[in-house]
Amino acid sequence: MREQSSAIDPSGIAVPAPDPASPASPSAPAPAPAPRTSADPGLSDRGGLLLAALGVLAFSLTFPGTAWALEGFGPWSVTTSRIVLAALLAGGALLAYRVPPPPRATWPGLAVVAAGTVVGFPLLTTLALETSSTSHAAVVVGLLPLTTAAYAALRTGHRPSRTFWAAALAGAAVVLAFALHDSGGGASRGDLYLLGALLICAAAYGEGGRLAREMPGWQVIGWALVACLPFAAVGAVCALRAEPVTLGAHAVAGLLWVAAGSQFLGLVVWYRGLARTGVARASQLQLAQPLLTLVWSVLLLGEKLSPAAPVAAVGVLVCIAVTQRSRA
Fold it and tell me: How would residue 152 be classed by pLDDT, with cut points 50, 70 and 90?
């Protein structure tokens, strides 16, 4: 979002003293200094990339955090509880800053954000992690920057080049081959959940980035969370009663992280970064997300990586890099 100052403080303008050597006739006034813009575009771009990078760092810990949470909670309990906790944080922030309700014209976009980033992606990936390892899920979800860029292109009516689509199909083929290899020759139920998560989250990221040009990014995710709170609260009560709960350090820490870090704070800085830098450019930073998640899965979960996992992750990274360059 561009911010420009629309007012000039008269007290800040210096009036030059008359020159005694000048003629008595009034001379033309000295030209006023050029106004300074409120922000340097270069600094704005760097700041937007930094915010987006912080979002990617938060997202890279989502799968390990979810795996920890699943040690003590069921999948429906994790999903609904994280929404409730994040919505309470968001609602408190909206109340503290006395933010008015969003315009009616933004409601459809907020509904897409809520369906994708608040409900759909967390639920589908949590269900997937019941049967898939975090390293496997990280590679499959590594296609998210590509699907996000494709959605943004289709949403805006832009026609990407043939190179873009060739690289996109190549990246999809790499992920499909890895999923089939890692699942013993056939797509697992977890892979279907991850595919659904990819599609719905791409739409949510695209709409969220567009809305973040009209309102602060934290308000975009904040209102989406608050809109889901009543339904999530009912769902959390039912899920916690129906599913076994075993409180432990990992379970509690994982749930708190995916609620506060991934579901709210991470999305706040991510949408702000999308707005300041652009969806296509900021999505390049997500290239690092699968690789970071692979590192966390080894360090935090003690998982053993299959040789195909890092190879597939790098292959997806190369394909997405080609798509981003072809759209420039």
Answer: confident
Q: How far apart are CA 161 and CA 149, in angstroms?
A: 13
Task: Round to whole Å and give the CA distance between 297 and 262.
Answer: 16
Residue 5 and residue 8: Cα distance in Å, rounded? 8
Task: Return the pLDDT at 280.
Answer: 62
Tokens 């575009």, residue? 41
Exposed / middle / buried, residue 293 (Cβ in 10 Å: 0-12, 13-18, 19+): buried
How far apart are alpha carbons 243 and 286 in whole angstroms? 34
- Higher per-residue confidence, 266 vs 254: 254
At 131, list the tokens: 């049967």
CB contact at 8 A, 289 and 146 = no
Instruction: List alpha helices for the chain, DSSP H.
Output: 41-60, 62-69, 75-96, 107-113, 121-128, 134-141, 144-156, 162-182, 189-211, 217-242, 249-256, 266-277, 279-282, 288-301, 308-327
In angstroms, rounded to a whole number, what is the distance separating the alpha carbons of residues 217 and 276?
10
